[in-house]
Specification:
Elements: H1 7-31, H2 37-55, H3 63-77, H4 89-103
Length: 118
């Protein structure tokens, strides 16, 4: 069997692996003293969201949350006909299907579409 002579590729792979491990080590050193680093980020984002809820999403920094709030409203109300919910139609239909499947309901008007699928 011939020797494939792929030592160069193996060497480059070893360099990439060692560089990634070094990067992980540097990140560990950078935040190693603060074991609650991610927790602090999460708490700050939660506090910002709560502030946005209190102000009614009035500030410009609260705009990204509006999309998620509209999504949750559309799924909760199961509004398929609302024009503002057309973007979320697939998720709304999925929520309706899951509710029909969980209740084993095939008699209601919304569930008749999915009859025989569960």
């Amino acid at each position: 069997m011939a020797d494939p002579h792929n030592y160069r590729k193996v060497g480059y792979s070893m360099i990439v692996v060692s560089a990634s491990l070094a990067a992980i080590g540097l990140v560990g050193l950078a935040i190693g003293g603060d074991v609650l680093y991610a927790d602090k980020i999460q708490r700050a984002k939660t506090a910002h969201f709560e502030e946005c809820v209190e102000t009614g999403f009035a500030s410009e920094s609260c705009r990204p949350y509006e999309v998620h709030m509209k999504f949750e409203r559309c799924v909760a109300e199961k509004s398929l006909d609302d024009e503002s919910c057309l973007r979320y139609r697939t998720w709304v239909e999925s929520a309706i299907f899951e509710e029909c499947r969980a209740d084993r309901d095939s008699s209601s008007r919304a569930c008749q579409k999915y009859e025989g699928l569960y």
